[in-house]
TrEMBL record:
It comes from Tetranychus urticae. SUPFAM superfamilies: Calponin-homology domain, CH-domain (SSF47576). One of its GO terms (biological process) is actin filament organization. GO terms for cellular component: actin cytoskeleton. One of its GO terms (molecular function) is actin filament binding. This is Calponin-homology (CH) domain-containing protein. SMART domains: CH. Residues 24-133 form the Calponin-homology (CH) domain.
Length: 171
């Protein structure tokens, strides 16, 4: 009697692809940066995996509270139930958006709590770090370089007409 071998399901392939996107060096820098901002060591240094160190949202809430005092109220410092973790993470996401992180840069709560998309969690934290540049009162440390500033171009009517006359020659 032969046994059938089935190929791994799509969810396994997706999980492998997500894990491949992870950047351990960046994750380490992110945790170090969070630790410097909040003034305490994040458990990664004690052997806790990156996603586990952040999953309950406590360090993320503390980060936003340091960056923008009063932005996160009632952090559950020892969440024992998943819904409390979800609440902490949701508080972080709201505070991050108010701090200047575009909605498109925010991860979904399940991305962290259920470890569905850890690279997106890292991308959101990097977006928070980028948003620090929007706040002149923030003196560092910085995780990212300063974002480029817009360099608007202003053309008068004569320049626009000359450009239009070139037509396809400009291509």
């Amino acid at each position: 009697m032969a046994t059938a071998h089935t190929a791994p399901g799509l969810h396994v392939e997706v999980a492998k692809a997500m894990f491949a996107k992870r950047n351990p060096e960046l994750e380490e820098k992110v945790l170090k940066w969070i630790g410097e901002i909040i003034g305490e060591k994040v458990p990664k240094y004690q052997g806790t995996p990156y996603e586990e160190a952040l999953a309950d949202g406590v360090f993320l809430c503390k980060l936003m509270e340091k960056l923008n005092p009063g932005s996160v109220r009632n952090i559950d410092l020892e969440p024992k139930h998943a819904f409390k973790m979800f609440e902490n993470v949701a508080k972080f996401l709201r505070a991050a958006q108010k701090f200047g992180v575009p909605e498109d840069d925010l991860f979904q709560t399940v991305d962290l709590v259920e470890k569905k998309n850890v690279p997106q969690v890292t991308a959101t934290i990097v977006a928070v770090a980028r948003a620090c540049w929007l706040h002149p009162e923030f003196k560092g440390p910085y995780l990212t370089g300063k974002p480029a500033e817009p360099q608007p171009r202003h053309f008068d009517e004569k320049q626009l007409k000359e450009s239009a006359a070139l037509g396809s020659l400009a291509l």
